[in-house]
Amino acid sequence: MINIRRPRTSAGDHASTGPPGARRTESPSQPEQPSSSWLRTVLRHDLPASLVVLLIAIPLSLGIAAASGAPMIAGLIAAVVGGVVAGALSGAPLQVSGPAAGLTVIVAGMIAEYGWAATTFITVAGGAVQLVLGVTRMGRAALSLSPAVVHGMLAGIGAVIALSQIHVVLGGEAQSSVLANLLDLPGQIIGHHDAAFGIGIVTFAVLLVWPRIPKVSLIPAPLVAVAVATLVSIGFGLTVPRVDLPENPFSGLALPTLPAGDLGGILVAIFTIAAVASVESLLSAVAVDKLHSGPRANLDKELVAQGAANMASGALGGLPVTGVIVRSSTNVAAGAKTRASSIMHGVWIALFVLFLGSTLEMIPMAALAAVLVLTGVRLVSLAHMRELWRHREFPVYVVTFAGVVFLDLVKGVLLGIAVALLLALWRLTRATVEVVEDSTDNWRVVVRGSLIFLGVAKLVNELRRVPERKRVVLELHVDFMDHAGYEAIHDWRSSYERTGGTVRVDEVQDTWYQRARQGRPEQRKSLPGQLPRWFAPWSYWQNMHADDITADGACPDAGSIVPEPRPGADPMMLGMHEFQRRSAPLVRPFLSELAARGQQPSQFFVTCADSRVVPNLITSSGPGDLFTARNVGNLVPRNDNETTGSSVGAAIEFAVEALKVPSIVVCGHSLCGAMNASLNGGARQGSHLASWLRHVEPSLNRFRAEGHDHDPSVPGCVDLDAADRLSVVNVVQQLDNLMTYPSVRDAVDEGRLTLVGLYFDISEARVYVVDQATGRLSPVDPAAVL
């Protein structure tokens, strides 16, 4: 009885739904960190890091609030909520959230249209959308937005911020649009704003110089720049606009009110806040993951955290919240280890506002504007431009950037997405056509890619370049062909042949044209890449006249699959020509190396001469991997037999003694003619075949002695007929025969040689391992190869 041993699945195999090899972030099965160790980590790493992030968060939060046209206190509220709420719930523990420059333009437009109180309601609603997206596990879907669109959007926002805040640096006021800012800029530059401009120059200088000073760069440059500018303005008694906070911070809180206006516009505003805040937060989380080796981000959980933070911030009268890469990277660089750093930085900001608010009111607005100008300029990244140029995504970036700057953010992003989709469609459906003159009378047209209606005009134009009355090979390397593509080829071919030419359609990758002609058009794209021709028999790809119209003018039978080769054509010569043309350039480097260092095969592979058994195919091996011996029935005559001097014996000794192979494989197969002839007769008496098949007799005796009958009551029993069961027994017998050779026996005893039995089911294209002791079959065990 022949059994398949089914792999057992442990309970742990079903415990995780994540991809293999994925690192778990916060598993409840993992032991919790002792409280004393956690406290040491917080005090040693997170507390200092939170103070560093505090120093950079305050000036940025104030500057973003000013640039948005929101109350100053709104930026600080968002910073507190982003630190405490988003930090406590975050799926990216080391990410720091707060008001972000990327939302400045959007919020400014909403405040101008709906007012500040209504904008806080939009923030709450946007947070609710984020919360739903996170709960429904849409976090990763947000990352499907093209990076070119995201970077173009950020660059456009940066340009808008810089153009508006440079007016504040010069002592003026930002205008309502980019065009107005551009038109008013020459007048601002010419005007005399000595005090404000001086403060801006001081701030710019510190921002640029401070990071270059060794050993002090850990203290954030924006904090130092704002502090220096504030001291200069106080020391020289300059009269310049400064931060204005309410005397009672709680009096500055604005409760959300329903916006008045078009419902469609309000919904667009809500989803814009949700979309931009989500994408910016998730991209920041992914970027932060690259900065540390701790737990990886859970993007769905992070989206829930950002939604909750935006609902809380809007409800308290704060700006929208996102994950901010500037603060997050500072947090990691300062040595933070847990989410405690983000939470504590929010607490410090709240305490600062409550007890040191008068200190913040000393800060000149020009200093905050200078920080934002430099922040906006840095959003226009030349490195991103070069990267997108190399990947041919720069048009998407440019369109998004221009749309955000000269129209508005939503229109700019939509334009960028549209260009990205058109570019992707063009790439996915692009077909290249090459017309080559092989000789005076022989022409070749090579088509590669996806052939759909968008590429038909180019294809027809190239086909018309072929002179009349020539022999043409139309070589198709296509992974998709729609009806327009098929019809263009078929019409051209019919017309060309009527004028006296001949056309042969040679489908290399897949039979799209042939199936369409037989009324069986395919609907899905082919597998990516070009499949080597040796995957299929000669008759499948040497379809010399499969596409020809039959003598009576009808198409070939739609049920026919295997075309007949052209009369008189030598399939081997055609195959060798195909090898020289396609495969030789790919395999030549490997063969050159093998020729230089000699053969060092990993296996001696003994198998049947059956043409359907291809050792390199079923083992996914290449040149130099297998030392192969093939004969009728994959037989290994015993060493004590009168045929000791056979070629099989010579191959065994050469493989073990000279090549020192680490394993010998004997591979039997289903539907074996040798086994069938041995079991049922069929070899002519006195023939060489009958003489050779005498070596099957030990296998026959073993088969009959063991009573290999199929028993359906045995779990896992393979339903094989008698000849196939004999094939399996024959593999076991040949493994025993191998041990009669001294060189094999010695190598096995010394542990430097293993013997393996295989059985190949031809119809199922499945390989089984044969147990030498029991004769049972078992599938190839993935654990044995991983």
Automatic annotation (TrEMBL):
<dbReference type="Pfam" id="PF00916">
    <property type="entry name" value="Sulfate_transp"/>
</dbReference>
<keyword id="KW-0456">Lyase</keyword>
<feature type="transmembrane region" description="Helical">
    <location>
        <begin position="396"/>
        <end position="425"/>
    </location>
</feature>
<keyword id="KW-0472">Membrane</keyword>
<dbReference type="InterPro" id="IPR036874">
    <property type="entry name" value="Carbonic_anhydrase_sf"/>
</dbReference>
<feature type="transmembrane region" description="Helical">
    <location>
        <begin position="343"/>
        <end position="360"/>
    </location>
</feature>
<dbReference type="InterPro" id="IPR036513">
    <property type="entry name" value="STAS_dom_sf"/>
</dbReference>
<feature type="transmembrane region" description="Helical">
    <location>
        <begin position="148"/>
        <end position="170"/>
    </location>
</feature>
<dbReference type="InterPro" id="IPR001902">
    <property type="entry name" value="SLC26A/SulP_fam"/>
</dbReference>
<feature type="transmembrane region" description="Helical">
    <location>
        <begin position="47"/>
        <end position="66"/>
    </location>
</feature>
<feature type="compositionally biased region" description="Low complexity">
    <location>
        <begin position="27"/>
        <end position="37"/>
    </location>
</feature>
<feature type="domain" description="SLC26A/SulP transporter">
    <location>
        <begin position="43"/>
        <end position="399"/>
    </location>
</feature>
<keyword id="KW-1133">Transmembrane helix</keyword>
<keyword id="KW-0812">Transmembrane</keyword>
<dbReference type="InterPro" id="IPR001765">
    <property type="entry name" value="Carbonic_anhydrase"/>
</dbReference>
<keyword id="KW-0862">Zinc</keyword>
<protein>
    <recommendedName>
        <fullName>carbonic anhydrase</fullName>
        <ecNumber>4.2.1.1</ecNumber>
    </recommendedName>
</protein>
<feature type="region of interest" description="Disordered">
    <location>
        <begin position="1"/>
        <end position="37"/>
    </location>
</feature>
<dbReference type="Pfam" id="PF00484">
    <property type="entry name" value="Pro_CA"/>
</dbReference>
<dbReference type="InterPro" id="IPR011547">
    <property type="entry name" value="SLC26A/SulP_dom"/>
</dbReference>
<comment type="similarity">
    <text>Belongs to the beta-class carbonic anhydrase family.</text>
</comment>
<feature type="transmembrane region" description="Helical">
    <location>
        <begin position="114"/>
        <end position="136"/>
    </location>
</feature>
<dbReference type="InterPro" id="IPR015892">
    <property type="entry name" value="Carbonic_anhydrase_CS"/>
</dbReference>
<feature type="transmembrane region" description="Helical">
    <location>
        <begin position="190"/>
        <end position="210"/>
    </location>
</feature>
<feature type="transmembrane region" description="Helical">
    <location>
        <begin position="73"/>
        <end position="94"/>
    </location>
</feature>
<comment type="function">
    <text>Catalyzes the reversible hydration of carbon dioxide to form bicarbonate.</text>
</comment>
<feature type="transmembrane region" description="Helical">
    <location>
        <begin position="222"/>
        <end position="243"/>
    </location>
</feature>
<feature type="transmembrane region" description="Helical">
    <location>
        <begin position="263"/>
        <end position="288"/>
    </location>
</feature>
<feature type="transmembrane region" description="Helical">
    <location>
        <begin position="366"/>
        <end position="384"/>
    </location>
</feature>
